[in-house]
């Protein structure tokens, strides 16, 4: 895959994936088109050498792997991990608000959202809906309104003279988006709107809405930005970018060696769930793949936890350690924290640097300032659960956890090239 093709396809992937469920569905479609076989956790598995497989859990997490042509317990597995979720505003179970003729929805803040950028944006709505069908059975379906259906208007500065100096956001009262105006006596419910949307998207008739997991998202699509198109701006770059990179690396490997991609949900809220990185999903897949040779396979394996890094912001340079300020378009960032907020050690970092150097590609290193706290990733959780040697790395970006984020056009492709080589490397260590 060439550089320009990679970035154009990345934009398509981002636009097709407004929620974790849509991201997983998009990945499933691409894996199936490449000849990977779907697995179901309820079935017995008969895995064959030299074959690709994938399995999902909750529709929002996925594990895809190539079995390779050798003994996995001897060869180990070349693993890449990422997460499908992003900070956002999720619709509450009983969300309807009718005030002064405006129809609004109550929302819950999911993850560490940077809230101010959500104001004055064209918002759409997507996610999973569970409903009772005309056949009397319970079904799940994905919905995506695709167009701008809501707006969170700012209060005019004339009514808030301190807005530019001391504005705070109350998540309960300030964030309910405006969806439409309704006349007095209108009884349209949110469930009515969902039933109509299901019918329009799938042609199915929903007798009753039984539940949903829906989130608002920026209706503006991913786009190239900059006088020389040297940046990409999009929602959910953290961490759908890494999901895309890992997927493309897996699809472009030779298939000779055992390789795996895991994309977990719920990283932004701690990863403690049935499908999160602190849950049993990946371990259960490895149990069924490796059998009694799992411990030996893990000992010879390596996990690359790919999650975006903080690029040094030219307006806030003092927020970085003076020797560890990653630049956009200067290479992926090896993330180091000796307090184990990142799982990188000297050996795992050396594996990446060696491959990157062999390919003549750049790389950088990030360490948080010693007087600041450090975020984390699925890396330490996966390393702790499996006992696998792990590297934390990511593409540098601006605006992390904002409704719209920014990366350089070079770094994602660079990481893709290194991870492709890593996934088909005959010997990891």
Automatic annotation (TrEMBL):
GO terms for cellular component: cytoplasm. Its cofactor is Zn(2+). It holds the Pfam family Peptidase_M18. It is an enzyme of class 3 (hydrolase). The keyword Electron transport does not apply. Its EC number is 3.4.11.-. One of its GO terms (molecular function) is metallopeptidase activity. Keywords: Aminopeptidase, Hydrolase, Metal-binding, Metalloprotease, Protease, Zinc. Belongs to the peptidase M18 family. This is M18 family aminopeptidase.
